[in-house]
Amino acid sequence: MGLVVLVALMILIEAGFRRQLAQLVTSLTIGLALLAALILVVDFFWQIIVVVALISSGYIIWENLRELWG
Q1: Where does the pLDDT of residue 42 fall: very low under 50, low under 70, confident under 90, or very high at 90 and above?
Q2: Which residues touch 7 (CB under 8 Å, ≥6 apart)?
Q3: 60: which of 4, 18, 45, 67 lies 20 to 30 Å off by Cα?
């Protein structure tokens, strides 16, 4: 744990000296958001598949009804 904190502190200080602190924070935020999205997809994979199947079947039914009425 201490090594992780030390490396993170060194990266933070280095970015501060190079005046790229905002870019570092932005990159870190984007990386954490992608990691969170990946975790959510893994946890809710089958629910996502069911929702996508329902939406696509509803769209196909809607298009068939529109073709039938048109």
Answers
A1: very high
A2: none
A3: 45
